[in-house]
Amino acid sequence: MSDNKQPYLQIKGLAKKYGDNLAVKPLDLDIHQHEIFALLGSSGSGKSTLLRMLAGMEKPTEGQILLDGQDITHLAPYDRPINMMFQSYALFPHMTVEENIAFGLKQDKLPKDEIASRVEEMLRLVQMPQYAKRKPHQLSGGQQQRVALARSLAKRPKLLLLDEPLGALDKKLRQQTQFELVNTLEKVGVTCIMVTHDQEEAMTMASRVAIMSHGELQQVGTPADVYDYPESKFVAEFIGETNIFEGKLVHKDDAHALIDCPELPSKVYTDQKFTAEDGQTIWISIRPEDIDLHKEKPAHRDTHNWAKGKVKEIAYLGSFAIYHVEMENGRIIKSQVPAPYWYVRNIEPPTWGDEVYLDWPENQPTPLTR
């Protein structure tokens, strides 16, 4: 039985090398019981290799995997209390839905009444009792995904691995299915690790996210933490949209810091905490939704946290618009403006070619040292 004070899954110094290529560099990671955890990264980041090592499909070059206190590093895939659901779903086309769900249970030689009971339980869980006799080709993509999930959960694994679980669905169906999948996993209470390259998917479904690049963990945290407080320029640019400016630290005290960014007409003043020395190179990240757009220069802005330019592009996206503002030096700043912003102020919104001013509050610029 797992000690709730200890991580349910412990990954210690795990690495994978293919010849001279280090696909996954030695990493440590703790996953808690009942957690839905996402490995997020682009192609070649090492996330799928890490997942395959957990499943036993790849042998680690070094390191250790502990699940519920048991060392499973060298166990064969079929000896691990782990199930994996693939992007393709891998349903048997000649079997019915209930036969697909029962397949793994029959392989484990469970009693017939136990198999029937679990299949019925899984069909109810994914709300598909009426489809029990159908074959995969008679189901929609979303229904096939639910059958694959039911089959993965039927064996009651200690750990469920999802490889791009919604990747085979179109965008609209993917968005609808995200919450359904989370609700199902939470009902069962299974510990889950999902691999995805889709930021929205990871941020919507997971309680914590690990961002990977070139075989290394770049940051681990809640979706809000990695978005609002990125620890590096890479993470800031990888998660969502942002504006990045390079500069030098002019002065820093316990409450504020002043950064000189040559691309901006004013210095950047921030009250976010970080460690750096005067003169050190600093990158400033400011999200588009944190930058206000004005037709006239704000009276309270003089020496810091403002810029000006001309509207180059406008993307209307329903509830908000993204303004691309080009400064005199050619640099583009993106500002996200809520749809009612101009209407409630009874102001005609700026259009292409108009000169505008931008400003941002002191608590929004995120200083990055790497």
UniProtKB/TrEMBL annotation:
PROSITE patterns: ABC_TRANSPORTER_1, ABC_TRANSPORTER_2. It is an enzyme of class 7 (translocase). The keyword ATP-binding applies. Coiled coil: none annotated. The keyword Zinc-finger does not apply. It holds the Pfam family TOBE_2. GO terms for cellular component: ATP-binding cassette (ABC) transporter complex. SMART domains: AAA. Its EC number is 7.6.2.11. Keywords: ATP-binding, Cell inner membrane, Cell membrane, Membrane, Nucleotide-binding, Translocase, Transport. GO terms for biological process: putrescine transport. It catalyses: ATP + H2O + polyamine-[polyamine-binding protein]Side 1 = ADP + phosphate + polyamineSide 2 + [polyamine-binding protein]Side 1. This is Spermidine/putrescine import ATP-binding protein PotA.
